């Protein structure tokens, strides 16, 4: 997902420059309050590992309801980059972004509620956010939804639903190899049929 965002931002920056806008002009737009320019500048600093500067610009943009900036603020707080690690603040920003439909934030929000990180543990909310991320094509979330159906965590046990979501996970090109190996082992262990 990070790679997709990086490519998207690179295209936007190149598009901006190709139409006569220099990086300095982009910065000026950000300083003038342009929320998309603020996100672009924030992402530029994030990629350069200048997380304090990235935080400043993401925060300005996030306060103007730019979901991708809200997602990035969540990541900064979650991993303690440029700001002290703070799961409660990470949860706040991830959930705001998740509610806009950001699949990566939905996945993080699911993890946060599943594990009770900065919030009261709530497997039902975890399932809700994992399922939303799964429907939005997030491979790891598809695997998590399958696991929750398989074991009846936050949802009624349903082997057919587990099989469906495991298959989605295995066919998703964005699913990690580790997740695929784990899902294949569960597929065989619980005799979910031929794949």
Automatic annotation (TrEMBL):
It comes from Candidatus Mcinerneyibacterium aminivorans. SMART domains: SEL1 (SM00671). This is Sel1 repeat family protein.
